[in-house]
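Q: CRISPR-associated protein Cas5, please. Structure only.
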Amino acid sequence: MHIMKAIRIKLWQDLVNYKKPTSFQLKETYPLPPYSTVIGMVHTMCGFTSYHPMEISIQGKYFSKVNDLYTRYEFKNGMKYEKSRHQLEVGEYGVGRGIATAELLVDVELLLHIVPEDQSLIEEIAQAFEVPQEYPSLGRREDIATIQEVKVVQIREVEAEDDICLDRDYGAYVPSSILGKLTFTPDMHSNIGRNDMLGTRYLLTDKYELVNRGTAKAPKMYRNWSKKDVFYTTSILVSEEDEFFLDEDGKPVFLEFA
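A: Structure for CRISPR-associated protein Cas5:
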Protein backbone atom coordinates (compact mmCIF):
# COMPACT_ATOMS: atom_id res chain seq x y z
CA MET A 1 0.00 0.00 0.00
CA HIS A 2 1.35 3.42 -0.99
CA ILE A 3 1.20 6.15 1.66
CA MET A 4 2.74 9.52 0.84
CA LYS A 5 2.33 13.22 1.44
CA ALA A 6 1.25 15.79 -1.13
CA ILE A 7 0.61 19.50 -1.34
CA ARG A 8 -3.01 20.12 -2.32
CA ILE A 9 -3.54 23.50 -3.94
CA LYS A 10 -6.86 25.02 -4.88
CA LEU A 11 -6.64 28.06 -7.11
CA TRP A 12 -8.81 30.30 -9.27
CA GLN A 13 -8.14 32.14 -12.52
CA ASP A 14 -10.24 34.73 -14.34
CA LEU A 15 -9.26 34.33 -18.02
CA VAL A 16 -6.58 31.86 -19.04
CA ASN A 17 -5.07 30.06 -22.03
CA TYR A 18 -3.28 26.72 -21.64
CA LYS A 19 -1.98 26.76 -25.20
CA LYS A 20 -2.03 23.69 -27.41
CA PRO A 21 1.37 23.66 -29.12
CA THR A 22 -0.12 22.67 -32.50
CA SER A 23 -2.52 25.65 -32.71
CA PHE A 24 -1.45 28.84 -34.51
CA GLN A 25 -4.12 30.95 -36.22
CA LEU A 26 -6.43 30.32 -33.28
CA LYS A 27 -4.42 29.85 -30.12
CA GLU A 28 -6.50 26.99 -28.70
CA THR A 29 -6.45 25.98 -25.06
CA TYR A 30 -6.49 22.68 -23.20
CA PRO A 31 -9.40 22.30 -20.74
CA LEU A 32 -6.88 22.01 -17.87
CA PRO A 33 -3.19 22.92 -17.68
CA PRO A 34 -0.74 20.25 -18.95
CA TYR A 35 1.57 18.56 -16.46
CA SER A 36 4.62 20.50 -17.69
CA THR A 37 2.83 23.80 -17.07
CA VAL A 38 2.06 22.90 -13.46
CA ILE A 39 5.55 21.49 -12.87
CA GLY A 40 7.02 24.70 -14.29
CA MET A 41 4.90 26.81 -11.94
CA VAL A 42 6.08 24.77 -8.94
CA HIS A 43 9.73 25.16 -9.90
CA THR A 44 9.30 28.92 -10.48
CA MET A 45 7.49 29.48 -7.18
CA CYS A 46 10.14 27.54 -5.26
CA GLY A 47 13.09 29.06 -7.10
CA PHE A 48 14.41 25.64 -8.13
CA THR A 49 17.29 25.86 -10.60
CA SER A 50 17.38 22.14 -11.40
CA TYR A 51 14.64 19.62 -12.06
CA HIS A 52 12.98 17.97 -9.06
CA PRO A 53 10.94 14.88 -10.03
CA MET A 54 7.29 15.01 -8.99
CA GLU A 55 3.93 13.47 -9.80
CA ILE A 56 0.96 15.75 -10.42
CA SER A 57 -2.79 15.17 -10.26
CA ILE A 58 -4.86 17.79 -12.11
CA GLN A 59 -8.61 18.34 -11.90
CA GLY A 60 -10.87 21.36 -12.15
CA LYS A 61 -13.61 23.17 -14.04
CA TYR A 62 -14.34 26.31 -16.02
CA PHE A 63 -17.52 28.28 -16.69
CA SER A 64 -17.25 28.98 -20.43
CA LYS A 65 -14.92 29.85 -23.32
CA VAL A 66 -14.43 33.13 -25.19
CA ASN A 67 -12.21 34.28 -28.06
CA ASP A 68 -9.96 37.29 -27.59
CA LEU A 69 -7.88 39.30 -30.07
CA TYR A 70 -4.20 39.96 -29.40
CA THR A 71 -1.28 41.53 -31.24
CA ARG A 72 1.07 39.05 -32.88
CA TYR A 73 4.62 39.80 -33.98
CA GLU A 74 6.37 37.68 -36.60
CA PHE A 75 9.91 37.74 -37.94
CA LYS A 76 12.28 35.52 -39.82
CA ASN A 77 15.85 35.16 -38.68
CA GLY A 78 18.10 37.42 -40.76
CA MET A 79 15.34 38.93 -42.92
CA LYS A 80 16.08 42.58 -43.74
CA TYR A 81 13.45 45.29 -43.35
CA GLU A 82 11.22 45.88 -46.38
CA LYS A 83 8.84 48.81 -46.16
CA SER A 84 6.23 47.10 -48.34
CA ARG A 85 6.35 43.92 -46.28
CA HIS A 86 7.03 44.77 -42.65
CA GLN A 87 5.23 47.00 -40.17
CA LEU A 88 8.19 47.49 -37.85
CA GLU A 89 11.91 48.04 -38.35
CA VAL A 90 14.20 46.78 -35.59
CA GLY A 91 17.72 47.79 -36.42
CA GLU A 92 18.04 46.64 -40.01
CA TYR A 93 15.62 43.75 -39.62
CA GLY A 94 11.90 43.58 -40.39
CA VAL A 95 9.08 42.52 -38.07
CA GLY A 96 5.51 41.85 -39.10
CA ARG A 97 2.69 42.94 -36.82
CA GLY A 98 -0.90 41.76 -37.02
CA ILE A 99 -3.79 40.41 -35.01
CA ALA A 100 -4.63 36.83 -34.02
CA THR A 101 -7.20 35.12 -31.82
CA ALA A 102 -6.71 33.33 -28.51
CA GLU A 103 -9.22 30.97 -26.94
CA LEU A 104 -9.68 31.73 -23.24
CA LEU A 105 -11.25 29.76 -20.43
CA VAL A 106 -13.46 31.81 -18.12
CA ASP A 107 -13.66 31.46 -14.33
CA VAL A 108 -11.29 28.52 -13.90
CA GLU A 109 -11.07 26.54 -10.66
CA LEU A 110 -8.28 23.99 -10.24
CA LEU A 111 -7.48 21.36 -7.64
CA LEU A 112 -3.85 20.21 -7.84
CA HIS A 113 -2.06 17.50 -5.90
CA ILE A 114 1.74 17.81 -6.03
CA VAL A 115 3.70 14.75 -4.92
CA PRO A 116 7.48 15.37 -4.97
CA GLU A 117 9.65 12.29 -5.27
CA ASP A 118 11.81 13.76 -2.51
CA GLN A 119 9.27 13.96 0.31
CA SER A 120 11.55 16.28 2.30
CA LEU A 121 10.52 19.05 -0.15
CA ILE A 122 6.88 19.00 1.03
CA GLU A 123 7.15 21.89 3.49
CA GLU A 124 9.33 23.98 1.16
CA ILE A 125 6.82 23.70 -1.69
CA ALA A 126 3.87 24.39 0.62
CA GLN A 127 5.60 27.46 2.04
CA ALA A 128 6.34 28.78 -1.46
CA PHE A 129 2.61 28.80 -2.24
CA GLU A 130 1.48 30.04 1.17
CA VAL A 131 3.86 33.01 1.09
CA PRO A 132 4.66 33.64 -2.62
CA GLN A 133 7.79 35.63 -3.43
CA GLU A 134 6.17 36.84 -6.67
CA TYR A 135 2.71 36.70 -8.16
CA PRO A 136 1.73 33.15 -9.18
CA SER A 137 0.68 32.55 -12.76
CA LEU A 138 -0.33 29.45 -14.67
CA GLY A 139 -0.59 29.33 -18.46
CA ARG A 140 0.65 32.58 -19.99
CA ARG A 141 2.75 34.88 -17.81
CA GLU A 142 -0.22 37.26 -17.52
CA ASP A 143 -2.61 34.50 -16.39
CA ILE A 144 -2.51 35.32 -12.69
CA ALA A 145 -3.66 32.62 -10.26
CA THR A 146 -5.44 33.38 -6.99
CA ILE A 147 -4.47 30.74 -4.44
CA GLN A 148 -7.48 29.78 -2.33
CA GLU A 149 -6.08 26.87 -0.33
CA VAL A 150 -2.73 25.24 0.39
CA LYS A 151 -2.81 22.10 2.49
CA VAL A 152 -0.38 19.27 3.14
CA VAL A 153 -2.38 16.06 2.90
CA GLN A 154 -1.67 12.39 3.21
CA ILE A 155 -2.46 10.22 0.19
CA ARG A 156 -2.98 6.52 0.39
CA GLU A 157 -4.20 3.75 -1.85
CA VAL A 158 -7.35 2.46 -0.21
CA GLU A 159 -10.31 0.26 -0.95
CA ALA A 160 -13.27 2.57 -1.40
CA GLU A 161 -16.04 2.00 1.12
CA ASP A 162 -18.55 3.99 -0.95
CA ASP A 163 -18.78 5.14 -4.55
CA ILE A 164 -16.56 8.17 -5.12
CA CYS A 165 -17.18 10.79 -7.81
CA LEU A 166 -15.49 14.01 -8.88
CA ASP A 167 -16.77 17.27 -7.44
CA ARG A 168 -19.72 18.74 -9.33
CA ASP A 169 -18.82 19.94 -12.87
CA TYR A 170 -15.18 18.93 -12.37
CA GLY A 171 -13.06 17.25 -15.03
CA ALA A 172 -9.72 15.51 -14.61
CA TYR A 173 -6.75 14.18 -16.52
CA VAL A 174 -6.77 10.42 -16.00
CA PRO A 175 -3.58 8.56 -17.01
CA SER A 176 -4.46 5.73 -19.38
CA SER A 177 -2.46 3.32 -17.19
CA ILE A 178 -5.06 3.55 -14.40
CA LEU A 179 -8.21 3.35 -16.51
CA GLY A 180 -8.90 -0.17 -15.29
CA LYS A 181 -9.48 1.17 -11.77
CA LEU A 182 -12.23 3.56 -12.85
CA THR A 183 -15.75 3.42 -14.18
CA PHE A 184 -16.86 6.14 -16.58
CA THR A 185 -20.47 7.22 -16.35
CA PRO A 186 -21.26 9.79 -19.10
CA ASP A 187 -24.86 10.10 -17.95
CA MET A 188 -26.21 8.30 -14.92
CA HIS A 189 -29.74 8.49 -16.39
CA SER A 190 -28.99 7.49 -19.99
CA ASN A 191 -28.92 4.12 -21.68
CA ILE A 192 -25.25 4.47 -22.61
CA GLY A 193 -23.22 1.67 -21.10
CA ARG A 194 -20.43 2.35 -18.66
CA ASN A 195 -16.95 2.83 -20.14
CA ASP A 196 -18.50 3.48 -23.59
CA MET A 197 -17.34 7.12 -23.47
CA LEU A 198 -13.93 7.68 -21.93
CA GLY A 199 -13.50 11.34 -22.82
CA THR A 200 -10.92 13.23 -24.90
CA ARG A 201 -7.51 11.65 -25.28
CA TYR A 202 -4.39 13.82 -25.05
CA LEU A 203 -0.64 13.29 -25.14
CA LEU A 204 0.47 15.92 -22.64
CA THR A 205 4.01 17.14 -22.10
CA ASP A 206 5.37 16.10 -18.74
CA LYS A 207 9.11 16.82 -18.39
CA TYR A 208 12.09 17.19 -20.68
CA GLU A 209 15.81 16.63 -20.88
CA LEU A 210 18.25 18.73 -22.89
CA VAL A 211 19.80 16.91 -25.84
CA ASN A 212 22.75 18.23 -27.85
CA ARG A 213 22.07 17.72 -31.56
CA GLY A 214 25.12 19.70 -32.59
CA THR A 215 28.76 19.12 -31.76
CA ALA A 216 30.90 19.62 -28.69
CA LYS A 217 32.34 22.83 -30.16
CA ALA A 218 29.06 24.09 -31.61
CA PRO A 219 26.30 22.68 -29.38
CA LYS A 220 22.65 22.94 -30.39
CA MET A 221 20.51 22.12 -27.39
CA TYR A 222 16.95 20.88 -27.84
CA ARG A 223 14.28 19.86 -25.36
CA ASN A 224 13.42 16.18 -25.60
CA TRP A 225 9.94 15.98 -24.05
CA SER A 226 8.40 12.94 -22.44
CA LYS A 227 4.63 12.78 -22.79
CA LYS A 228 1.85 11.31 -20.73
CA ASP A 229 -1.11 9.51 -22.31
CA VAL A 230 -4.27 10.71 -20.57
CA PHE A 231 -8.02 11.03 -20.95
CA TYR A 232 -9.83 14.22 -20.02
CA THR A 233 -13.23 13.34 -18.64
CA THR A 234 -15.89 14.77 -16.35
CA SER A 235 -17.71 11.56 -15.50
CA ILE A 236 -15.72 9.29 -13.22
CA LEU A 237 -16.89 6.85 -10.61
CA VAL A 238 -14.62 4.92 -8.26
CA SER A 239 -16.80 1.97 -7.40
CA GLU A 240 -17.15 0.48 -3.96
CA GLU A 241 -14.36 -1.99 -3.13
CA ASP A 242 -12.09 -0.62 -5.91
CA GLU A 243 -8.57 0.34 -4.83
CA PHE A 244 -7.65 3.91 -5.64
CA PHE A 245 -5.64 6.91 -4.41
CA LEU A 246 -7.51 9.25 -2.08
CA ASP A 247 -6.29 12.10 0.06
CA GLU A 248 -7.21 12.38 3.73
CA ASP A 249 -10.34 14.41 2.87
CA GLY A 250 -11.64 11.81 0.43
CA LYS A 251 -10.62 13.67 -2.75
CA PRO A 252 -9.60 11.33 -5.63
CA VAL A 253 -6.00 11.68 -6.78
CA PHE A 254 -4.95 10.55 -10.28
CA LEU A 255 -1.44 9.14 -10.00
CA GLU A 256 0.47 6.57 -12.03
CA PHE A 257 2.36 4.82 -9.24
CA ALA A 258 2.49 1.06 -9.76
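A: Brief note, in case it's useful. Residues 3-253 form a domain with the Alpha-Beta Plaits fold (CATH 3.30.70.2660).
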